[in-house]
Design a protein that fits this description.
The protein is α/β, with parallel strands linked by helices. The protein is 36% helix and 19% strand.
């Protein structure tokens, strides 16, 4: 997904007069294993079956990724009824879908491939197991997010109650307080979620939680890296999309961790340069669905205006990779 770097010559400083800035570059940042797998699924489906390949919802929340895949022959839709009768692959996004979606695809004899992140599948399976044990499910998450809709759609209507805040917990009245379990969206703020979980446990001491935290490793690692950088910089640039939950959380984490200014940008051209006047240090990170070439764009744009010294702030190593679906590993018939 290579793209020419946008070269904006407005207000560039001559090399000799550029103000000095230290750039603290978060590591890890950008693509997680689930996002990388989802993009691979679309690209491999295109290579194996040819265009078009249909994708329900944005495969990941990043316009640059989506437009790059469109250029290769992917067709993005919001609902299955937008897809004509076809034998071409229909791919479900990394965020997961309600059970009704693959059922509808099957009823139309669609060839579907599920790109749901395995860590989202983990949450689905947890909710299902708790439900089968007779527990009502509390889902901590953001209303309207595709992952939340997919998780709630794993169980019958009314089986899952969504809470977004501590105030929601105070208002929540379950049928049986002794028969509750909670799961969470994978891309939440660690600190906010901890507060909500504490409130749930205080009100409902018997509530059952996940054996291992549902917030995914990538969300956790990116927030930890931002916490390490934020107190040291005057401004934090978060490369990501406005509909990307994990990217929005990185902006919030930066602000709460001591950074006076935090800015969500999709590309370098979105930078508000006035906010960077007089800065001595700037941080850069990227949400889990933002490709590294967009980070490179931002670095180039900074180097056009400042004498930049780059310091990598590494807080974790990530070596996780997920297998692609069997349909794409087998030779074409």
């Amino acid at each position: 997904m290579k793209s020419p770097l946008p070269i904006d010559t407005v207000n560039q400083h001559p090399a000799a007069t550029r103000p000095r800035v230290t750039l603290l570059l978060a590591a890890p940042r950008g693509f997680c294993a689930g996002v990388d797998r989802a993009i691979q699924i679309v690209e491999l489906a295109l290579a194996k079956f040819g265009a078009p390949v249909y994708v329900r919802h944005e495969i990941v929340h990043n316009r640059f990724v989506v437009e790059s895949l469109k250029a290769k022959g992917a067709v993005f839709v919001e609902e299955l009824d937008e897809i004509p009768n076809t034998s071409q692959p229909v791919i479900f996004s990394a965020h997961g879908v309600a059970k009704s979606v693959p059922a509808a695809a099957k009823s139309r004899n669609m060839f579907s491939i599920d790109a749901t992140c395995p860590l989202v599948f983990k949450v689905h399976n947890e909710a299902q197991r708790h439900f089968e044990k007779g527990l009502a499910i509390v889902l901590i998450g953001h209303a309207g997010h595709p992952e939340v809709e997919g998780t709630m759609g794993q169980l019958p209507a009314g089986a899952v109650s969504l809470v977004e805040t501590v105030a929601d917990v105070a208002r929540f009245t379950p049928a049986d307080p002794a028969k509750l379990a909670y799961v969470t969206q994978t891309t939440l703020s660690l600190d906010d979620t901890a507060e909500i979980v504490a409130a749930l446990k205080a009100r409902f001491p018997l509530i059952v939680g996940p054996a291992k935290e549902d917030i995914c490793y990538a969300t956790t690692n990116r927030q930890v890296a931002v916490k390490a950088i934020a107190p040291r910089v005057d401004c934090m640039l978060v490369v990501g999309a406005p509909n990307s939950s994990n990217s929005l959380r990185l902006v919030e984490v930066a602000e709460r961790s001591g950074c006076a200014k935090a800015m969500l940008i999709q590309r370098a051209v979105d930078i508000d340069w006035q906010l960077l006047d007089g800065i001595k240090a700037v941080g850069i990170t990227a949400g889990a669905s933002a490709p590294e070439e967009l980070v490179d764009e931002v670095i180039v744009a900074l180097q056009q205006r400042f004498d930049v010294t780059i310091e990598i702030v590494k807080t974790a190593d990530e070596r996780i990779a997920f297998n692609i679906p069997r349909e794409l590993r087998e030779p074409a018939a």
